[in-house]
């Protein structure tokens, strides 16, 4: 088995040249076809390809500078994190992959602007921003695909946060994982909205890494998950190409529920849902039965993320007071999309 | 495809001799390995074998007598059911399979003593009692396996309610389904308890028949269900033979959750759980984390059925006030079990 350090050694020189400052932003992303299950624990290589939409301005910004006092400093949202804390350890271990022989201490300052109440994972945008900031600080000039593959070694879904808009993380086949990176889909959908429903916050009892491992090891139903994911990926491509919102929404919802189904079928059972999650799901289904096109997706937690189009935003906001609504595609970002003209026509 | 009438015609003479009175009781049963998915819709032939424990005195009693006024009468718990009502239609259609050319009108009087609040299906005990009463009324003198196979044509799980105690419904291979019947396992477990938790009552939006069909047709994860069921059946045999309660409980709980997982992964999503179901599940898991050996199973509805041993009944009743507790095995029924001596020793 290849380690992260082995991979870095294959692709980067032993000694890097530090700059004075490295800075980057990476968006959070919501998977419409989920990453669930690893074929390689060390490198975060997935059992299935996944597809997400990024959350525009919501994400992580990271600034790397040389440390003035001879020791590393890790800050999160302006607060210094104790050496040995979970967050500081993960950040420093990732930085060490690149810093290696250098003894230069650094200050790594990360700000997340994701509403904490929304229960969104920050590891995806966090590791993507950190990778981009390292690329800047050491003037690595890596290609986006390499940045994505390296960010994946920090957190699987970080591979997708290197890009914006619709993003596919290709599972790859190589042992060192360098073909397991994300690519941006050249598709724009300015009418699309993501609504963040707060159900519950607080630390999860079983984190995603442990959760997916338990599922792979104990749920017989997991054996059919790669098939579900492959079918859903294909459907999502068709939905995005044809701007078929109901196909997109239905596929994302069934994919998320199938992922949760594999957890529920695990032993010991893994249920990230709270009673309030069921209430919110029933509310979405009730809205749909009234003819309102709204779907949900969920990650390894109790919160729902709603998918809908701008024309129904008012109705959905009145059904879910306090909903945080994100427009993943801004009109000005869409000029590079050859199918953008069609998208505008629909608007 | 063979119809129910074809099957009856193969095994019974065209004209039956009616008696003056046919009467029978059949117990309800709780599946520890669930029946979920049919390979033949008309005959209720299952995709997987299942295993249940019967609920002793809780079930259905049916009395068949000739009708005095020239028309059929169907009564449920003392109340006449309108001709053409769902219940009366199902009963009369089943009776017609046997009555056939006879024009003799009948009165079919069924009493269920299952607490309606417990949300237990009554079709299993109902069709089993009806089949046994028909066997009595027409003096069919059918073997238990034939009674079970015929009862299955009324409702799949009725095949198991012909027997008491632990019962396995063998899936069979024949096209006419006559090898798809239940058999009693010769095993007694007087310490075993089943607790009926009321979460919600009321008509289900999607009945079990439609639910399992939707699952088979739309859930990719269902492809792994037969494997799950086969593994669980084997584990349950081991658990019963060795009186290993934790293996029995864990297997039953994972089996039930895996069945619900296949529904959750269907499209449109099929969630029989209510928010209160999640509360009750979390309560069971909390009790287990405190060292109390309690597990649950659920059928196609929101209610939980708890599994535990007599020695922990008091603790579990205090955690679930109003719990209806059933002892599936009475000591006096256990004398025929060769392993009963061991079971008594453990008590």
Molecular structure report:
The structure is a homodimer of 347-residue chains. With 347 residues, chain A is α+β, with helices and mostly antiparallel strands. The first copy, chain A, folds into 2 domains: 4-184, Ribosomal Protein S5, domain 2 (2-Layer Sandwich), CATH 3.30.230.10; 192-346, Alpha-Beta Plaits (2-Layer Sandwich). Helices cover 36% and strands 21% of the residues of chain A. Chain A is built from 10 helices and 13 strands. In chain A, strands 1, 4, 5, 6, 7, 8 and 9 form a 7-stranded mixed sheet that branches. In chain A, a hairpin with a 6-residue loop joins strand 11 and strand 12 (304-309). In chain A, helix 2 (86-99) runs parallel beside helix 3 and helix 3 crosses helix 4 (144-154). The longest helix of chain A is centred in the last third of the chain and has 20 residues, at 245-264. Chain A is globular and about 60 Å long. Mean pLDDT of chain A is 92; it is low at 338-347. At the A-B interface, helix 6, helix 7 and helix 8 of A face helix 6, helix 7 and helix 8 of B.
List the helices and strands and how they pair.
Two copies of one chain form a homodimer.
Chain A: H1 4-11, E1 22-33, E2 38-40, E3 45-46, E4 50-66, E5 73-76, E6 79-80, H2 86-99, E7 106-112, H3 123-137, H4 144-154, E8 166-169, E9 182-184, E10 192-197, H5 208-218, H6 225-241, H7 245-264, H8 275-289, E11 295-297, E12 304-309, H9 313-319, E13 324-326, H10 340-346
Parallel strand pairs in A: 5-7
Antiparallel strand pairs in A: 1-4, 2-3, 4-7, 4-8, 5-6, 8-9, 10-12, 10-13, 11-12
Helix pairs in contact in A: 2-3, 3-4, 6-7
């Amino acid at each position: 088995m290849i380690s992260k350090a082995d991979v870095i050694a294959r692709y980067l020189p032993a000694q890097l040249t530090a700059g004075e400052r490295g800075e980057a932003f990476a968006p959070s992303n919501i998977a419409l076809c989920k990453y669930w299950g690893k074929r390689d624990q060390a490198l975060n290589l997935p059992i299935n390809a996944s597809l997400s939409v990024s959350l525009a301005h919501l994400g992580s910004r990271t600034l790397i500078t040389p440390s003035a006092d001879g020791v590393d400093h890790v800050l999160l949202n302006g607060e210094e994190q104790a050496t040995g804390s979970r967050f500081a350890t993960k950040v420093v271990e990732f930085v060490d992959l690149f810093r290696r022989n250098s003894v230069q201490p650094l200050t790594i300052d990360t700000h997340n602007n994701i509403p904490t109440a929304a229960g969104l994972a920050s590891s995806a945008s966090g590791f993507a921003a950190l990778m981009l900031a390292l690329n800047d600080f050491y003037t690595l000039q890596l290609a986006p695909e390499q940045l994505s593959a390296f960010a994946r070694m920090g957190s699987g879904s970080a591979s997708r946060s290197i890009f914006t808009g619709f993003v596919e993380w290709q599972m790859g086949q190589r042992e060192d994982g360098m073909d397991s990176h994300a690519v941006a889909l050249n598709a724009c959908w300015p009418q699309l909205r993501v609504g963040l429903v707060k159900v519950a916050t607080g630390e999860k009892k079983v984190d995603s890494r442990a959760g997916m491992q338990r599922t792979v090891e104990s749920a017989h139903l997991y054996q059919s998950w790669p098939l579900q994911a492959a079918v859903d990926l294909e459907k999502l491509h068709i939905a995005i190409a044809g701007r078929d919102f109901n196909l997109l929404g239905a596929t994302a919802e069934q994919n998320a529920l199938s992922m949760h189904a594999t957890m529920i079928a695990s032993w010991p059972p893994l249920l990230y849902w709270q009673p309030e999650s069921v209430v919110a799901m029933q509310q979405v289904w009730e809205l749909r039965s009234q003819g309102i096109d709204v779907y949900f997706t969920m990650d390894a937690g109790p919160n729902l993320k709603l998918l809908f189009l701008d024309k129904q935003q008012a109705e959905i906001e009145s059904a879910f007071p306090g909903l945080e609504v994100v427009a993943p595609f801004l009109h000005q970002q869409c000029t590079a999309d050859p199918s953008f003209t069609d998208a505008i026509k629909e608007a």
